[in-house]
Amino acid sequence: MRKYAFFLLTIFLALPASAQRINIDIPGLAERAAEVIDVTLDAQMLRVASKFFSSRDSDRAVREMVNGLEGIYVRSYEFDKVGEYDRAIVDRLRSQLGAEWKKIVNVRSRDRENVEVFLHMRGDAVRGLFVISAEPRELTIVNIVGPIDIDKLGSLEGQFGIPKMSMEKGKQ
Amino acid sequence: MDIERDLNDALRRREAPAGFASRVMARIESGEADAPAAHPERKPWRAIAAAILLTAVLGGWAAHQESERRAGERARDEVLLALRITSEKLHEAREQVNEIGTNH
Questions:
Q1: Does residue A8 belong to any structural domain of this protein?
Q2: Rounded distance, CA A74 to CA A130, Å?
Q3: Considering its fold, how many domains does chain A have in total?
Q4: Which candidate, B85, B89, B102, places its Cα nearest to that of A112?
Q5: ipTM associated with this complex
Q6: Once rounded to an integer, what is the mean pLDDT over residues A105-132?
Q7: A140: domain range?
Q8: What percent of chain A has pLDDT over 90?
Q9: pLDDT, tens digit, for every residue of B73-104?
Q10: Residues A113 and A78: beta-carbon distance below 8 Å
Q11: Are the C-beta atoms of A145 and A70 separated by less than 8 Å?
Q12: Which residues of B touch A46 (CB under 8 A)?
């Protein structure tokens, strides 16, 4: 009986994490791209990585943020020509998002990039982040699984090459 | 304390226990007394094998440590790359929102 309860508990705990994980692998796209960035870091790799941040303030901030995460997945494709990727890819990515995902930013531009930012909410807590940035010659997809402190992410601005956002919190 | 008396006592002739001579003679006759002492045979290959094994274990451990360090540093760099891309995209989105807000 105990084993059965443990099994159910494991599934129950695993389900929310899987709900935040989006399949961002697009077959055949990397072959067409001129430049590809592929970052796949599961919880285990994040734990390993966190040991390699020093005790300096800036490093500590990253380590604290990374320690709580269950995965970071980034795919970024840069193409030589416009129209080398199907815009329907974005629709397919978006269709995977369940009801818990709330769109907080949606920027549509004819000449520049279209950016959509989604947060996976559980109560007031942010449990996942999903970003689609579609430009004519570039497609970037980011999926961060786990509790994300946007304030902590903001505290990294200007360090490690992370750009300074210089914007007021909550202002959109 | 009488040193002279103590010395006399210590060096006084004593009779061997009964049957001592016959026991000694019996051992000599049986050849037991000639048996060499049980000294371990010197085997240098054992020391060489142990040294090779120790070197292999230490070398393997050092290589494993080095591989773990590289994997960890690569993972750290990937974390920073991922955070940089995420931050950049959020930054660009925010800039566009601000731009649109300013124009209206």
A1: no
A2: 10
A3: 1
A4: B89
A5: 0.79
A6: 88
A7: 14-155
A8: 44
A9: 999 999 999 999 988 888 888 888 887 777 66
A10: no
A11: yes
A12: 75, 79
Measuring CA to CA, which residue among A117, A63, A146, A78 is closest to residue B80? Answer: A63
Question: What is the distance between the alpha carbons of residues B30 and B32, in angstroms, rounded to a whole number?
Answer: 6
CA angle A130, B85, A39 (to 5 degrees): 75
The answer to whether the CB of A130 falls within 8 A of the CB of A97 is: yes
Residue A113 lies in a domain: yes
State pTM to two decimals. 0.70
Q: How far is A14 from chain B (nearest CA, A)?
A: 23
Domain ranges for chain B, please list them. 3-37+44-103
Contact between chains at A129 and B86 (C-beta distance less than 8 A): yes
CA distance A130 to chain B (A): 9
Token digits of residue A8: 């159910």
Predicted confidence (pLDDT) per residue in A58-90, tens digit: 788 888 888 889 999 999 999 999 888 998 999
Residue A132 pLDDT > 90: yes
pLDDT of A45 over the 70 cut: yes
Judged by CB atoms closer than 8 Å, whether chains meet at B90 and A165 is answered as yes
3-state secondary structure of B43: coil
Beta carbons of A74 and B82 less than 8 Å apart: yes
